[in-house]
């Protein structure tokens, strides 16, 4: 029975009509090329470079066209400014110290407190450096530990000295009286 079924299936498959000749990819490409060749070509194409802004342009109803402002609206100047102008104004304000001054009511307290904190930290770091420099460790391992601690303490002291100089420079630029940061 399996043999008969196999024979019958083979006869049906062979007797079916063969598929039509398939179109090749080359044939499809040639047909598409021929179809596109018959279309109308553009006479001229326009780019943004071909377009010019007409400042005196009018709309079809006869009213003047308003040019859109370029840049950023500045509340302080009440108009549009360029990014470069915003940066220049910000740098000028920082140079004058307006940004560092802060609130007039707390300006003196702010500067005095900041100076006092740096001064206290600097004095503590100086005492630690002096103590570590005067230490006489007995063993070489203690000497290495002491040297490492001394280097760290000296780095902290140097950093605080830089902070102190920066504070005095900022205070001078902000017009702060010297007595506030002495």
Short overview:
The chain is mostly helical and 182 residues long.
How would you describe this structure to a colleague?
By secondary structure, this protein is mainly alpha-helical. Among the domains are: about 70-100, no CATH class; about 105-180. It is about 60% helix and about 5% strand. The protein contains 6 helices and 2 strands, in the order ααββαααα. It has helices at about 1-15, 25-35, 85-95, 100, 105-135, 140-175, and strands spanning about 70-75, 80. It has a two-stranded antiparallel sheet. Helix 5 (about 105-135) runs antiparallel to helix 6. The chain is elongated. The mean pLDDT is about 75.
Question: How would the blueprint of this fold be written?
Answer:
Elements: H1 2-15, H2 25-37, E1 72-74, E2 79-81, H3 83-96, H4 98-101, H5 107-134, H6 140-174
Antiparallel strand pairs: 1-2
Helix pairs in contact: 5-6
List keywords for this structure.
2 strands, 182 residues, mainly alpha
Order of helices and strands: HHEEHHHH
Most strands sheet? 2 strands, antiparallel
Radius of gyration: 43 Å
Instruction: Please give the count of helices.
Output: 6
Strand content: under 5%
First-to-last CA distance: 114 Å
Spatially, the strands of the biggest sheet line up as 1-2
């Amino acid at each position: 029975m399996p043999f008969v079924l196999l024979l019958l299936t083979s006869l049906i498959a062979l007797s079916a009509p063969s598929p039509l000749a398939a179109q090749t990819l080359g044939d499809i490409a040639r047909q598409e090329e021929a179809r596109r060749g018959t279309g109308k070509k553009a006479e001229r194409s326009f780019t943004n470079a071909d377009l010019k802004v007409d400042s005196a342009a009018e709309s079809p109803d006869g009213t003047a066209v308003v040019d859109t402002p370029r840049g950023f609206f500045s509340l302080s100047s009440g108009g549009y400014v360029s990014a470069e102008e915003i940066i220049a104004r910000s740098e000028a304000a920082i140079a004058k110290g307006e940004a560092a001054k802060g609130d007039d009511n707390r300006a003196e307290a702010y500067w005095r407190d900041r100076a006092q904190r740096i001064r206290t930290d600097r004095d503590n770091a100086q005492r630690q450096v002096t103590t570590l420099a005067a230490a006489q460790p007995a063993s070489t391992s203690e000497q290495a530990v002491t040297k490492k601690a001394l280097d760290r303490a000296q780095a902290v002291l140097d950093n605080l000295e830089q902070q102190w100089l920066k504070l005095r420079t900022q205070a001078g630029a902000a017009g702060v009286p010297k007595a506030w940061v002495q």
